[in-house]
Specification:
- Strands 1-2 form a two-stranded antiparallel ribbon.
- Strand 1 and strand 2 form a beta hairpin.
- It is mainly alpha-helical.
- It has one domain.
- The protein is elongated and about 65 Å long.
């Protein structure tokens, strides 16, 4: 299975990619802004509590940057938003593993605690799931635009029924 850039962009799955990137991006921006308002040190390893998690200046900045990137993906939409969701989701999963190893050490420069690690895993899984939704599977229905672009000969034999026009 491959993610291909030439796949159709004008389908209703694009809304899943857009809304998921926009919602998670908006949450990250709010989290980052609230982290900045507490005036915690930029590299403080203790951090301050924001929305049930800990944050410092570095984590707040990264949250705003990744939130803005996801908002950009939501605005751009289509396959770009899907691929961006998958890529950022992988980064969140990797961040969760790295910061899990740094929890009790002196190198915890993002002030992560266990709630942050769990949040990183959950957001990563959500972004990856929404990015792959309808795009990566072994059993796509024949009317899925990704299936149709991967099987053009079968799509010509089985054309889609015309959509009912509104009255």
């Amino acid at each position: 299975m491959q993610l291909q850039d030439h796949l159709p962009v004008d389908h209703r799955l694009g809304q899943v990619y857009r809304y998921s990137a926009g919602a998670i991006g908006l949450f990250l921006i709010v989290f980052g802004i609230l982290g900045f308002t507490d005036n915690v040190g930029f590299f403080s390893t203790n951090g301050d509590h924001v929305l049930g998690m800990t944050s410092n200046g570095t984590l707040s900045l990264l949250s705003v940057l990744f939130g803005a990137l996801l908002i950009y993906g939501a605005v751009r939409g289509g396959n770009f938003a899907s691929t961006l969701n998958i890529s950022v989701g992988v980064l969140f999963i990797l961040s969760g593993f790295v910061n899990l190893g740094l929890l009790d050490g002196d190198h915890n420069f993002l002030a992560f605690h266990m709630r942050n690690v769990i949040f990183s895993f959950l957001v990563g899984l959500a972004l990856m799931t929404f990015g792959m939704y309808g795009r990566v599977t072994t059993h796509l229905p024949y009317d899925n635009p990704y299936w149709r672009s991967r099987h053009p000969e079968a799509a010509r034999v089985n054309p889609l029924p015309p959509r009912a026009l509104p009255h």
